[in-house]
């Protein structure tokens, strides 16, 4: 089993906030960072292809197609990034930081979630880009979409599940199965549910179908923990990503490790060798042949930890059989 991985040149200078591969090619990777940049990498050429400078930390970025990306962050502005011409267009503004940017292929819209307690829909081609704004009870911390579903992780451990075609009221409102602050959220590739992770080294697996039989399947488990000299160390889980084909998922934690899980049989399939810094972001390519890992300081130990932190690094691995559930296709 190969542990080969590439480290693309030109990693961001500050924390890596999000990673996403192009929907058209596993060769292009988008990374947003607290250093106020969005960078596009060409993995095969092992180079930073282009860099977009912003006015403040970028918390999230996403592709809509091979040549357009969108970004948002602490300056509250949504930007369109033209990847070929390297032009930036400001599309509009929230009243507070944009925490999450997603593209919905279902509605062909850019969706933004913000600390201003709204989620907004945008059409970059329209004369007025903002198409709608929907009020929420809390700040949006994380957001993901699958098919027609939009899942929002709100500040007070609340989750709102919407149908993007009917945003007037959530389909479901749930409280987190985890006791502590949510650190990551990702929807299953098969559209059946989602996983969330928290600061106390736990992951919860949830299903959309509200029927009691399906809800009985949901569970939470401990992970990213270590016993050192008889002392239990618990690390935040900062990142989750589902494999697009096999529906297994990767988790990344402040213990600087990445694990691959088969949530159906509740088993860990693999843990990769430790990185030099906490794992802050993860992304599988659309064809599942690559896994991007963003390793950077996640402020778990405050200013003091920042002084001795390693500089951020990006890695791209080519996962093998470990991402495939046992007996797949048998």
Write up this protein:
With 330 residues, the protein is mainly β. The protein has a single domain (5-319), classed as Methylamine Dehydrogenase, Chain H, CATH 2.130.10.10. Helices cover 3% and strands 51% of the residues. It has helices at residues 212-215, 302-308; strands at residues 5-6, 16-21, 28-33, 37-42, 47-53, 58-65, 68-73, 77-82, 88-93, 98-104, 109-114, 118-122, 130-135, 140-146, 149-154, 158-163, 172-175, 182-187, 193-198, 202-207, 219-222, 225-228, 231-234, 237-242, 249-253, 258-262, 267-271, 279-284, 291-295, 313-317. The radius of gyration is 19 Å and the shape is globular. The model has no long low-confidence stretch (mean pLDDT 94).
Short description:
The chain has about 325 residues and is mainly beta.
Helices, strands, pairings?
Layout: E1 5-6, E2 16-21, E3 28-33, E4 37-42, E5 47-53, E6 58-65, E7 68-73, E8 77-82, E9 88-93, E10 98-104, E11 109-114, E12 118-122, E13 130-135, E14 140-146, E15 149-154, E16 158-163, E17 172-175, E18 182-187, E19 193-198, E20 202-207, H1 212-215, E21 219-222, E22 225-228, E23 231-234, E24 237-242, E25 249-253, E26 258-262, E27 267-271, E28 279-284, E29 291-295, H2 302-308, E30 313-317
Antiparallel strand pairs: 1-30, 2-3, 3-4, 4-5, 6-7, 7-8, 8-9, 10-11, 11-12, 12-13, 14-15, 15-16, 16-17, 18-19, 19-20, 20-21, 22-23, 24-25, 25-26, 26-27, 28-29, 29-30
């Amino acid at each position: 089993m190969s542990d080969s991985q590439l480290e693309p040149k030109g990693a961001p200078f500050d924390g890596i906030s999000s990673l996403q591969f192009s929907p058209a090619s596993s060769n292009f990777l988008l990374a947003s960072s607290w250093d106020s940049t969005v960078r596009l990498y060409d993995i095969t050429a092992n180079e930073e292809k282009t860099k977009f400078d912003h006015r403040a930390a970028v918390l999230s970025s996403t592709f809509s197609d091979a040549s357009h990306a969108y970004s948002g962050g602490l300056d509250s502005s949504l930007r369109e990034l033209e990847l070929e011409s390297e032009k930036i267009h400001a599309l509009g503004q929230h009243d507070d930081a944009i925490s999450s940017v997603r593209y919905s292929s279902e509605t062909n819209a850019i969706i933004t979630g913000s600390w201003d307690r709204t989620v907004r829909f945008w059409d970059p081609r329209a004369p007025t880009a903002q198409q709608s704004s929907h009020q929420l009870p809390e700040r949006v911390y994380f957001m993901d979409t699958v098919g027609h579903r939009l899942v929002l992780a709100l500040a007070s451990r609340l989750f709102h599940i919407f149908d993007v075609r009917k945003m007037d009221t959530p389909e479901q409102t749930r409280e987190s199965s985890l006791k502590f602050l949510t650190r990551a959220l990702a929807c299953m590739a098969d559209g059946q549910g989602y996983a969330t992770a928290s600061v106390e080294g736990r992951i919860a697996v949830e299903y959309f179908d509200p029927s009691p039989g399906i809800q009985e399947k949901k569970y939470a488990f401990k992970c990213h923990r270590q016993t050192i000299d008889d002392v239990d160390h618990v690390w935040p889980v900062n990142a989750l990503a589902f494999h697009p084909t096999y529906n297994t998922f990767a988790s990344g934690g402040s213990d600087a490790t990445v694990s691959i899980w088969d949530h159906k049989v509740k088993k860990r399939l693999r843990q990769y060798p430790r990185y030099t810094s906490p794992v802050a972001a993860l992304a599988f390519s659309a064809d599942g042949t690559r896994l991007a890992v963003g390793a950077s300081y996640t402020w778990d130990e405050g200013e003091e930890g920042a002084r001795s932190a390693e500089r951020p690094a990006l890695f791209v691995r080519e996962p093998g059989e470990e991402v495939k559930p046992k007996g797949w296709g048998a």
